[in-house]
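Summary of Year 1 activities. Much of the first year was spent building the evaluation harness for sequence design. The harness presents a backbone, in tokenized form, and records the residue chosen at every position. We chose the following record to illustrate the format because it has been used consistently in internal testing since the harness was completed.
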């Protein structure tokens, strides 16, 4: 897991390496300071030799200055490398998300992906910065200080051999207790993000139903859950500091007691200067352990974000291009050969059941059915947004699984049920269909989609700015711009998934007429709720429960399909009455 995440360091690896190197220099200087201080006491202060005091005092100042410079350099390298690591990790994770298919997105959820790209990466950045400094500083500091302490007095240093295992046991116990809490916290963060996203996205519905208080209460419940878990975790981790303080003062008391006896004992080899150095090394060893405990706490908090980032980076797209793929779609013919589909293995039943269907290139096919009859599911198999569970879907006579996935989707234009416009100008949105489209081509596509008139009426015309989500245009205008965007692809297959539902019947008829006259060779699949939108189609499919209940032209279905006849009579004859 760590190896995978560390691939995001890339060009910052030398900068990241510079931080621990400088940190080792800083620690080395700090280790020398007690030795210099002991010699100053022994050779300068005790005998009253001011020359030696100035000599060792200058050496102390030099060591302190070098330690400061090494520390500043280490902090700079760590900050620079961690920021670059976080940037690369975000890019890698976001790039990976772009390769996902619908089933992958369904697995993670939008709110979870947003949390992983923001809060989780921020946590990992902090952990990385602290790690490349402290994870090297602490062992080097502890080991070097222990060596120097044993060099001064092995008998006094035995206390470290007792305290270190006790501290290690205490830290591991705390980590074991607190880790499950942090795992739960980050899952709750996903839920919090989801609540905020839903509220902001549906703010008009919230206000129209006067549900602000209920939404605030829902947010507060989730926020309180995070607060309670964090409080519980912090309450456990609060024992870390008293544990360290207990170890520090226990060592100081023991060294003071035993050291005083050794100082006055003849031939012990321990004098006042050596005892002073021992106190300093004791502080360095135990402060190093305290830093190590902070690193452990940080790692404990970061284990969940590490795992979540790793899951995002290693998730394999459900759909991919085969080796030696077909890169050109011959025509817009579509075939379904005994196709069944379910969204997951855990699903209780198939969404589509035994679909057999042939559509010639250039045909106009209407698709009707009650809500939940899997109309959208059927057309999503054509550009391979999902793969059929059983059977074969063919486009241009070739199994869709044999195509290069980008070539296939480039030949199919979909205007989905939920129309999405992005922030930017109308031109920017239209050029999603064709980045190299000229002004004349964009205007022509908008005329086909009956969008040119309202676009031209804007003060800035095609340079009019669209707000995020297209909130400054009506539903019908949004649908027509999405249709124009799809037409700019010049696709072999055009799929309109209930994409004229917000358009009046006159405009709907004009769009269909333009399609018939201007793009006769493009296969058109039109999912609609209105019979008027599909009654002139070459073939009309009636879906019911994921099966093709009836297929034929308008007049045939009026005679043979009870479902179609009921829909027609409710819309047309009911309207006349």
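For this record, the design step produced the sequence shown next.
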């Amino acid at each position: 897991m760590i190896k995978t995440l560390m691939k995001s360091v890339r060009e910052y690896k030398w900068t990241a390496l510079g931080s621990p190197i400088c940190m080792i220099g800083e620690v080395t200087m700090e280790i020398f300071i007690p030795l210099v201080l002991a010699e100053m006491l022994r050779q300068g202060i005790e005998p009253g030799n001011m020359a030696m005091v100035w000599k060792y005092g200058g050496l102390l100042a030099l060591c302190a200055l070098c330690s400061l410079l090494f520390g500043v350099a280490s902090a700079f390298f760590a900050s620079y490398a961690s920021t670059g690591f976080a940037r690369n990790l975000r890019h890698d994770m976001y790039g990976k998300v772009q390769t996902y298919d619908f089933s992958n997105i369904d697995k993670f959820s939008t709110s979870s992906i947003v949390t992983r790209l923001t809060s989780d990466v921020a946590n990992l950045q902090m952990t990385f910065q602290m790690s490349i400094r402290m994870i090297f500083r602490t062992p080097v500091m502890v080991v070097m200080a222990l060596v120097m302490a044993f060099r001064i007095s092995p008998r006094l240093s035995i206390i470290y051999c007792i305290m270190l295992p006790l501290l290690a046991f205490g830290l591991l116990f705390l980590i074991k207790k607190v880790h499950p809490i942090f795992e739960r916290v980050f899952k709750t963060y996903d839920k919090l993000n989801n609540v905020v996203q839903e509220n902001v996205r549906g703010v008009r519905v919230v206000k129209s139903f006067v549900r602000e208080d209920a939404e605030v209460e829902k947010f507060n419940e989730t926020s309180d859950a995070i607060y309670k878990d964090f409080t519980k975790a912090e309450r456990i981790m609060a024992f870390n500091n008293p544990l360290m303080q207990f170890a520090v003062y226990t060592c100081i008391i023991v060294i003071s007691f035993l050291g005083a006896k050794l100082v006055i004992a003849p031939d012990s080899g321990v004098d006042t200067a050596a005892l002073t150095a021992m106190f300093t090394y004791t502080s360095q060893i135990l402060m190093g352990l305290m830093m190590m405990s902070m690193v452990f706490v940080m790692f404990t908090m970061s284990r969940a974000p590490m795992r979540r980032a790793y899951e995002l980076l290693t998730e394999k797209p459900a759909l991919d291009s085969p080796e030696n793929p077909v890169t050109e779609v011959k025509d817009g013919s579509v075939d379904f050969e005994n196709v069944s589909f379910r969204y997951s293995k855990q699903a209780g039943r198939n969404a589509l059941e035994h679909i057999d269907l042939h559509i010639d290139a250039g045909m106009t096919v209407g698709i009707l059915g009650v809500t939940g009859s899997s109309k959208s599911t059927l057309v999503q198999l054509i550009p391979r947004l999902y793969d059929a569970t059983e059977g074969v879907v063919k486009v241009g006579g070739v199994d869709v699984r044999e195509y290069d996935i980008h070539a296939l989707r480039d030949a199919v234009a979909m205007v989905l049920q939920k129309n999405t416009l992005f922030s930017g100008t109308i031109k920017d949105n239209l050029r999603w269909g064709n980045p190299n489209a000229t002004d004349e081509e964009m205007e022509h596509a908008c005329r086909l989609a009956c969008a040119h008139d309202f676009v031209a009426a804007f003060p800035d015309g095609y340079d009019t700015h669209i707000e995020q989500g297209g909130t400054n245009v009506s539903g019908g205008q949004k649908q027509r711009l999405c249709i124009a965007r799809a037409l700019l692809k010049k696709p072999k297959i055009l799929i309109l998934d209930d994409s004229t539902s917000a358009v009046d019947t006159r405009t709907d008829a004009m769009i269909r007429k333009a399609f018939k006259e201007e793009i006769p060779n493009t296969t058109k699949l039109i999912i609609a709720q209105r019979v008027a939108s599909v009654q002139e189609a070459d073939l009309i499919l009636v879906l019911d429960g994921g099966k093709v209940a009836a297929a034929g032209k308008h007049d045939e279905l009026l005679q043979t399909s009870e479902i179609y006849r009921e829909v027609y009579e409710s819309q047309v004859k009911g309207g006349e009455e």
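The chain has 19 helices and twelve strands. Quantitative recovery figures across the full test set are reported in Table 2.
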